[in-house]
Amino acid sequence: xxxxxxxxxxxxxxxxxxxxxxxxxxxxxxxxxxxxxxxxxxxxxxxxxxxxxxxxxxxxxxxxxxxxxxxxxxxxxxxxxxxxxxxxxxxxxxxxxxxxxxxxxxxxxxxxxxxxxxxxxxxxxxxxxxxxxxxxxxxxxxxxxxxxxxxxxxxxxxxxxxxxxxxxxxxxxxxxxxxxxxxxxxxxxxxxxxxxxxxxxxxxxxxxxxxxxxxxxxxxxxxxxxxxxxxxxxxxxxxxxxxxxxxxxxxxxxxxxxxxxxxxxxxxxxxxxxxxxxxxxxxxxxxxx
Length: 289
What we know:
Blueprint: H1 4-20, H2 25-31, H3 36-43, H4 50-59, H5 64-68, E1 72-75, H6 78-89, E2 94-98, H7 110-120, H8 127-150, E3 153-159, H9 160-169, H10 179-201, E4 207-212, E5 220-225, E6 230-235, E7 250-253, H11 256-272, H12 276-288
Parallel strand pairs: 2-3, 3-4
Antiparallel strand pairs: 1-7, 2-5, 5-6, 6-7
Helix pairs in contact: 1-6, 2-3, 6-8, 7-8, 9-10, 10-12
């Protein structure tokens, strides 16, 4: 039988993938002819039979190795991806994030409203899609609330080119917005950059921010350091300028080699990043321009 920690991880993946498929506990239980109580136990990691995992994996269209966390874990919906991030962050002592234009965990309360407005640009007549966007925003809020309660160490690497586009455009998913609406989005973005500037000038305990002006990776990544292991999340999903929460495949891995390679990248970026007064000067110049 799998060890307790591994079983808990499997249960966490089950919940994330279920949310990603926009399935309620009742719907899954009914389709598998099992009780809701049994499903809740499975999502808590109380899984005694491999047969149960096989049946759930088929319903959720997730391979058994993916549920077990063997090798690389692939996640094809933003809801499931950010739910997995929320779960993993809850057990992490340190987080190193390159998630442009800035780590969601450090955003202001106003950022949620700004993101909701941007995502509404791309709403459809599909009720399930709209429900998924609502669930995503809920998960993101939970992530920030959990972070603020636990306060793990957080290193945020910010790419200056992304921040520049963020200030110039705001969060936009449509080309047909009025100039008045575009200016409103830009003002909202500038307010958020003011928030970043306040964090750079007076960082909370355990927070370090570095701004990179040179070449940066094309994909977002986040490193989670936990007492017994480290993980890396690589994401095609974006919460910044031109957000993408619809298309892509995110990955998680505990591979020692994979974690080491990303830690080397993060270390190199941190060494080259502007920090403290230098970072504040970059942000002030950006806002003036």
